[in-house]
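User: What would this chain look like folded?
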Amino acid sequence: MYLKSPIPLAASVFIGPADKLLTLILLSPRSAAKYLTEDSSAALATPSLSQGKEKLTMVTTWGRGSFGVHDAAQRFADNCNAISGGTLEIDLKANGELVSGTAAAFDAMTSGTADAAHFAMYYYIGQNPTTAFYTAVPFGMTCQELDDWILHNGGRELWDELGEEMGFKGFLAGNTGTQAGGWFGKEINSAADFEGLKYRMPGLGGKVISKMGASSITMAGGEIYQALQSGAIDGAEWIGPASDESLGLHEATNIYYTAGFHEPGAGLSVCVNLDRWDGLSDGHKEMIRVSAGEANRWSHSQYLANNGAALERLIAGGTRALEFPNDVWDAFGKGAMEVFEENMGDDLFKRTYESAMKSMRASSGWISKSAGAYMTQRDRVMGG
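Assistant: Here's the prediction, encoded as structure tokens.
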């Protein structure tokens, strides 16, 4: 499910230098749309906001109605449609409605078959491993740390460089928060238990478990349940309790690891075909940026608001919530460093890695001493 009224008042935190957009976002969606469509000089004080109508067809890798991921894409589309007053329409096509599969969504966007796409960028590490940083990398950034890097510490500029190379303009437009370790057909008691497993895990995390002897598999979320049920795969990670419950993964196995190394704060991206982006007015570009920023914050909150209750339901229904032992975490870490090192020959990957890690350490240094220490003491004192 998703809200029908995008862009709440609090979304003003994402507003940039466009004075007119600042005014619009502080209004309700209905007021914003009315304000934009009024035939008055005040409403059209920013010329770029009145320059014609645009319709962007946006494909996604998410099935329509998929908890969290499709909701984020829909939120972004609704935001654009509301604040533009009809001058910028996002026509959202869920997975299978225009194209099917993860590869097809990126290809459609960059080729111009579609104008935009909403997906997880790490699906495309086969084209360029640097894409992983804009979703998540093993032992990488949380949602807050990813935002810090993109917005303030150099990530935006490096993403633009990657986009110039691959043919898109990208924005964060969703975040799942820290993801679960996933579902397994058997308990994982040591790193050796990964040997021979067929496991659904995309991105660089999949490269890590391959070094541990597993076969990493990338597939769309809607395909996971059937693959688990049929035995085509031995296990899978998807997102977290709320999303996993919505797919029925607990019906295929009851062994669930609640913390994973692979996606500590997985960003979801909206990417616009670069030629299409360059042809948009400044006003429409700003609407896309603002709409994506609000969807990013809203999406993360949606996951955090729902995961706890979903995990309780799963456990009550027989799911066993487990944690990987330390030697498995150590093997994850060893594999992660090997995967990073293998890609350091690519200049953009190397610069992006160095920038992301520097930013992560800077953010984490304060977060751990402030919010981290506070939450530990809050739970101790208040019985959290």
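The longest helix spans residues 347-382. If you want, I can go into more detail on any region.
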